Amino acid sequence: MIYRWLADLTLVVHLVFIGFVVAGGLLVLRWPRLAWLHLPAAGWGVLIEVAGWFCPLTPLENHFRRATGQAGYAGGFIEHYLTAAIYPAGLTRTVQWGIAAGAVLVNVAAYYVIWRRRRAPNRAAARRPPRQPGPSTGH
């Protein structure tokens, strides 16, 4: 029973991680300090896709599934859970590169917005004339 729960928990963590890799830049728009977690996670996720590796969560989930007497699955997480729904013809290297490019583009766009927001106050301050001391009000 515990192994089934651990396998399901690993599946949920895997899904959340993939969502964070793909769209975490959007969360960083709201919580900028989250970038310290998102950038390494996004780098890892893109590397996994581009290199054609399996995420370590895949064999961990398979281990837990086998411990419960289930078969586990061959291939990676995306191939097993998402390919049939999203890519019926199968996951090819070209599709993996496309997934990686999509994740990069979404996040580059989000980080560009963050960068522009941070630059805007600095540029506005640089254009403002220095404050001149005004007449004393006598207070």
Can you write the helix and strand succession as a string? HHHHH
What's the multimeric state? single chain
Instruction: Give the number of helices.
Output: 5
Residue runs with pLDDT of under 50 for 5 or more positions: none
Number of strands: 0
Q: What's the Cα radius of gyration? A: 23 Å
Shape: elongated
Helical residue percent band: over 70%
Counting helices, strands and paired strands, the structural category is mainly alpha
Strand content: under 5%
Written description of the protein model:
The protein is built from five helices and no strands. By secondary structure, it is mostly helical. It has one domain. The chain is elongated. The mean pLDDT is 81.
Give short descriptive properties of this protein:
139 residues; mainly alpha; 5 helices; 73% helix
Question: TL;DR of this structure?
Answer:
This protein has 139 residues and is an all-alpha fold. It has 5 helices and no strands. The termini are far apart.
Layout: helices, strands, pairs:
Layout: H1 2-30, H2 35-51, H3 57-67, H4 77-86, H5 93-127
Helix pairs in contact: 1-2, 1-3, 1-5, 2-5
